[in-house]
Design brief:
Length: 470
Amino acid sequence: MKFLSVFILPLLVTAGISLLSPETTPTGVEIQSSASQLSAKDNFLKYCAGCHGTKMERFAGNTWEAFKAGGDLTGVIRSGLPVLGMPSFEKAFTQAEMKAISDYILEMKDKKEATVAVKFPAVVRSKHQAFRIDTVAKGLDVPWGIAFLPDGDILVTERSGQLFRFSGGKLKAIISGVPEVLALGQGGLMDVVLHPKYKENGWIYISYSKKAPDGVGGNTAIFRAKLKNNQLVEQQELFKAMPNTTSGVHFGCRMVFDDQGYLYFSVGERGEKTNAQTLTNHCGKIHRIFDDGRIPPDNPFVKTPGAMPTIYSFGHRNPQGIDIHPVSRRIYNNEHGPRGGDEINLVGKGNNYGWPVITFGINYDGTIITKETAKAGMEQPVFQWTPSIGPSSMKFVTGNRYPGWKGDILSGSLSFKYLERVRLENGKVTEQEKLLENAGRVRHVTMSPDGYIYVATESPGIVVKLVPVK
C-alpha cells in the first residue's frame, strides 16, 4: 500500500553516488579511448549505474516518461539535465555510443520488473553483533527522517511532503499542517528531530526545501512546530537558506542538537561548487543556531563583513549525516563527494573542508575537478570512500544494547544498498563492515531513546528495527 497521493521516483542523479575511483578515468580523452572498447551495457554499468542503479531503478518519473516517449535518450545523455544534477556526457562518449546506450536503456526499462519485498533472515550474525530485523513501518517511498515521540509512536518524513505517525507497526495518522515543499529532484520534506526538552516544551524541528516567494526555485529551510491532535501548530520558521536556485540537488539537510542546546544542521552547495567557499551564502555549509533561531554571538563569522552569521564550518559539498561523538561530544558529519571522495569529517568551528579546491573525487563524466587532495588551511577528512557509497546519514552507536558495536559509526549507503559500520579509534578508521546488504537504499539510520537502532530504506520504502539477539 502506498500512502502518497503522487508517486515520484528518485532523482536522476543521487548526490555523491559512484561506482568508480578517481584513478579509473583521469581525463576526458582517456574516457573516449576506454569507452569505445565497451558495449552499451558495459558503458551503462560503468558510467551510469552508480546513479541510476544496475537495474535502472532510479530514474526521475515524469522526466523519464517524457524521454521514453520520444524513443531516444541521446540528447539527455549528451547535454545532461543540470537542474536535476545530471551532467553532460558529451566528452565521455561518441554519438554512436550515446545512441547505443539509449537503445540499451529503453530496451531494458521495458523489461524492468517491479520491486519485490525484501525477505530478511531470522537472525543476522555480523562480525561483532547478532540481531534480528523487525519491520516497523512500510508502504513508504522515500522515508527521509525519523523521530520518536514519548508515547512510543514514530514520526517518519516522506520526501514528497508528508509526515506519518506510526504506532505498533501500523500507520496511525498522517500529520496535517506540513508546509508545501519544493519537491524538486532531491528536495522535499527531509529531517525531523525533537527538542532535547521535548517533554517540557513540545517543539518538533523539521527541515525541508522551501519554494521561493515568486515560485521559481527555492532552498533549504527549517521550522519548528508543536503537535496537537495530529496537526502541526504554532509554526515558526527558524532558517531559510539563500540564495534561491532552480537546482534540484544538494539540499542537505540533517539536524542534531548538542549538549548545550545548539542546533547544528547542514545545507549542500546546491550543485554550484563555488558556493561552498563563499561565506556570503548559506550553501555548502554546516550551520549553528539557538533552538529559537537566534544567532550564537560566538559563531565564527558573526563579525566577518558580508558573511552569513549562522555558518559554523564551510567547504562542504552535500552533507547528509551529522551526529555527536559519544565520548568527546564533538560534531562529526558525513557527506557526498562527486564520483569518489565521500567523506567523514570532524567538524570544527570556522574550519574549511576544502570542496571543491581539494577532493578525492572526480566529475561524474570522469573529468578532473582538481588535482589537489590537500592544501594548507583546509581540513582533511577523517575517512574517505572511493568508490563512493552515497552516505545518506550517520549515527554513533551508544548505550549497551549493541556491545559489539558500541562507539562505532553507522552510515547508510544509497549507492550499494547497505548499512556500513565504521570503527573509529584514536581518530582513525580501523574496521569496516557491511550490514543489511541489499536491504534497499539506506536513507536514514538513527537510535531510539530506549537504545534501539532504526533504519529507513527506499526501494522498498520501509523502516526496520535492529533487535539484538544472543
